[in-house]
Amino acid sequence: MKLPDWLRRTVPELSAIQQQRLARLPAAPALDEQPLARRRLVVLDLETSGLDLQRDQLLAIGAVVIEDGAIDFSQQFEATLCRANHQASASTLIHGIAPSAIAAGMEPGEALLAFLEFLGDSPLLAFHAAFDQHMLARALKESLGLRLRHPFLDVAELAPLLCPEAPIRQGGLDDWLSHFQLQASERHNASADALATAELSLILISKARQQGLLDLASLDLRLRAWRQRRQAPSL
C-alpha cells in the first residue's frame, strides 16, 4: 500500500546553528497560578491551504502578545511559509495569499523556529484553537522534528463560558467581535485575525478576573468543568 505524502515526509537535516537555536528554546509553560495581569500570552492565528488536518499545509503565521494586561504592539510576529509547487485553490479566495507570495516566503523550518523564539515560554490563545494547535504541531514535527508542548486556550470556548448572558453559543469570531462592537481591520489575514482575537481576549480576561478567575490554572479548571456539563447527557 502506498503511504500518503504526509506519512512519508522525513525531517530535513537542520544546520548546526538551527540545532543550537532549538537547544536554547525554553521549556513549555504550565497553566499555573501566575496572575493573569502579569502573564505574557501569545495570541495566534494561522492561514492554511485548506481544512484537511492531515493533508493541507500551514501557509502563514500571525501572532501578537498580551502582557501586563494590554496588547504589546512592539511584540508582533508575521511570516509566510514557502511551499513548493503550491497552487491556487478555493482557500486562496479566503486568505488572499497568492502563490507568488508563498513561493517567496520563508523556508518552513526557519519560519517555525523564528516563531518558537518569539513564543518563548508563553501559553497560546487562539479562536477554534484545536485546528491551529493541530496544524502547528504537525508543521513543527515535519519541519523541525519537534513536538509541540505549549498549552492552548480556546477563545471560542472562553467567550461563552465567561459571557453566558450573550445570545451566542457556537458563534464564530465575527459573531463575538460584533457582540462587543469590535472591528477587525481585515479578516482571514493571520496578523489581523490574531489582533482581533487579542482584543476579544482582553475583554474575556477582564471578565475572568471579575469572576474571581485570576490565573490560567483557575480558568482552565473552570473551562474543563464547563465542557463536562455541556457534554453530559440531558435527562
UniProtKB/TrEMBL annotation:
Annotated Exonuclease domain residues: 40-210
GO cellular component entries: cytosol
InterPro entries: Ribonucl_H, RNaseH-like_sf, RNaseH_sf
Keywords from the UniProt entry: Exonuclease, Hydrolase, Nuclease
Domain of life: Bacteria
One Pfam family it belongs to: RNase_T
GO biological process: DNA metabolic process
Entry keyword annotation includes Hydrolase: yes
A molecular-function term among this protein's GO annotations: 3'-5' exonuclease activity
Protein name: 3'-5' exonuclease
Source organism per UniProt: Aquipseudomonas ullengensis
